[in-house]
Design brief:
Elements (H helix, E strand, L loop, with lengths): L18 E6 L8 H15 L3 E6 L10 E4 L16 H20 L3 E5 H15 L3 E5 L3 H7 L8 H14 L4 E4 L2 H11 L6 E3 L16 H11 L7 E5 L8 H13 L5 E5 L4 H11 L5 E3 L9 H5 L4 E4 L10 H7 L4 E4 L2 H7 L4 E3 L4 H12 L2 H18 L2 H17 L7
Parallel strand pairs: 1-2, 1-4, 2-3, 4-5, 5-6, 6-7, 8-9, 8-11, 9-10, 11-12, 12-13
Helix pairs in contact: 1-15, 2-3, 8-9, 8-13, 11-14
């Protein structure tokens, strides 16, 4: 085991395995979005010999092989709401206490904060231990609050939260961003120096997400279990169900295609709000061509369910977050129809099928066009699988994070704050 120096943070030798404390202000592990990024980063770093401890909220699923320290539950609120919530403030007070407790015992060489609360809480520990802080930026804090309608742009609270976000963005020695758009946001809106920003796009596990691992017999069993008619092509979505994720747009596109007589089935995988969107599907008259699965286990179920898709979709409206689901679609070799955004173009390149953001009829038309052209579907899917293999490997991402950690620890001029 590498021993820290007198101040508790610097490793004895360059290139040695490190102790990294990750602060995850969420109910890790939750089988969606940023949770998957955390999981895959930890696995990639563990493969390089690093010792990782994740400090997170009390609720969440344990994952074999991961060291997870959890907070105590709130006496009055044991559950956790996805997205912005007033209860999150109390959760984060508990998280800060747990981070301090674990940090003093674990004595990390690096503190790695996920999301803004993780960077703020992790920044306090990093300053105390005099070790570098890395911030994993997964989208704008105020942008997310606006998406969840927790804030209004003209409201009194917006200015406070925007200033707090700016303060947090200047705490770390380096910021990892999941997209080029996030890098530009940090530079242009929050004034973060370019040299502190390190683009690290989300990636895909090409072994886990591979169409070849799913047999025709397994597909047929799953189709029967889910009530998907034989021979009907499937449009697949896997992710959170929310208005800002474009779930209502997807259902309205299904309605448009039904009115045109298209023979298609929509497999909508994820949570929360399944009942609300199922009710919307009923009102639109598309319940017979839409299946909601609810929460999907990323490790055990996701590749098998995604394998049922002939076309994958990402109708995400938010411009402040990444879109990691697209990389899993790519790894499965599926053509992708997506609302046009910087992050979608960064992932899909010239092989994506783009439609104007929020345009339901254009979304339906793009899906309908692919339904009629199997050769194009196969060509695009193969190209996207190859693009994922070439540009979006978690092993390569882990090596970049490893190099960043050692760069920070080798620089005597870098001090927290």
């Amino acid at each position: 085991m590498v021993q820290p120096d007198a101040m508790g943070g610097r490793p004895a030798q360059p290139g040695s395995p490190l102790r990294v404390l990750m602060v995850a202000p969420t109910s890790f592990f939750g089988h969606y979005g940023g949770h998957i990024r955390i999981l895959e980063e930890v696995r990639a770093l563990q493969a390089l010999g690093h010792q990782i401890t994740i400090v997170t909220y009390h609720k969440g699923e344990d994952v074999a092989g991961l060291s997870i320290a959890r907070t105590a539950p709130l006496p009055w609120r044991a559950d956790y709401e996805v997205g912005s919530s007033r209860h999150k403030l109390a959760f984060d007070v508990y998280l800060a206490q747990k981070v301090l407790q674990v940090g003093r015992r674990f004595r990390p060489h690096i503190v790695h904060g996920h999301m803004h609360e993780g960077a703020l809480i992790g920044g306090a520990l990093a300053r105390l231990l005099r070790v570098p802080l890395v911030f994993d930026f997964q989208g704008s804090l105020t942008g997310e609050m606006l998406d969840h309608q927790f804030l209004k742009p003209e409201g009194m609270g917006y200015r406070f939260w925007h200033r707090l976000e700016q303060f947090i963005c200047h705490l770390p020695q380096r910021i990892l961003t999941s997209s080029v758009g996030a890098r530009l946001l940090l530079q242009n809106e929050f004034g973060v120096p370019a040299e502190r920003i390190v683009p690290l796009p989300d990636c895909a596990d090409l072994e886990h997400f591979s169409a070849e691992r799913v047999t025709p017999e397994q597909k047929n069993r799953l189709r029967r279990k889910l009530g998907i008619p034989d021979g009907r092509p499937v449009v697949a979505y896997l992710g959170l169900l929310a208005d800002y994720q474009g779930t209502p747009h997807l259902l309205r596109a299904a309605s448009s295609l039904k009115q045109q007589g298209a023979d298609v089935h929509f497999l909508i995988m994820g949570y929360p709000n399944e009942d609300r969107y199922a009710a919307q599907a009923l009102r639109l008259g598309v319940s017979d061509m839409v299946t909601f699965t609810g929460r999907v286990n990323y490790i055990k179920e996701a590749p098998y369910l995604l394998a049922l898709g002939d076309i994958a979709v990402s109708p995400k409206l938010s411009s402040s977050e990444g879109s990691g689901k697209v990389l899993n679609y790519m790894a499965m070799g599926q053509p992708v129809v997506a609302f046009d955004s910087k992050v979608h173009r960064e992932y899909l390149g010239e092989h994506g099928v783009y439609v104007p953001k929020g345009d339901v009829e254009a979304l339906a038309a793009a899906i309908g066009s692919l339904l009629q052209d199997e050769e194009r579907r196969c060509r695009l899917g193969a190209a996207l699988r190859q693009r994922a293999a070439t540009n979006f490997s978690w092993a390569a991402a882990g090596a970049r994070i490893d190099a960043l950690y050692h760069e920070l620890l080798a620089d005597p001029e870098i001090r927290p704050g």
